[in-house]
Write the structure tokens for this entry.
Amino acid sequence: MQTERSIPELTKDMAFHLGDMFRNELKLARTEATEGVKSMSGAFGLFAWGAAFGAAALTAAVLSVAYLLSTLMPMWTALAIVAIGGGLIAWMLVQSAHKAMKPENLSLPKTRDQVSRDLKTLSERVH
């Protein structure tokens, strides 16, 4: 059998549950963000080493193209052509990366879904 509770008691109880729910949402967001950072930290080191070796290989390849072109024209012209071509490729890659880096990719989907469910449940209980 349920006892009748006063409005101040119900309000106090609801405030307690809202605070508890908010703390749980913060814990979920913190856990989700920490997991994402941990998974990326090891990959970042590998990426840095790969980028260093890739830059060295690319430098050697670009110089070999410049030397090949220097058999057909003056060296300064060959280097200028290779530099302009490399600059255009770099510009296109940076533009593609800029488009791929959207704030939506940094969202916390589990936290957003949980907060949405909590708000829906709260709305149903209030009405």
Observations:
- The longest helix spans residues 7-69.
- The CA atoms of residues 66 and 81 lie 8 Å apart.
- The two ends are 23 Å apart (CA to CA).
- The helical segments are 7-69, 75-100, 109-126.
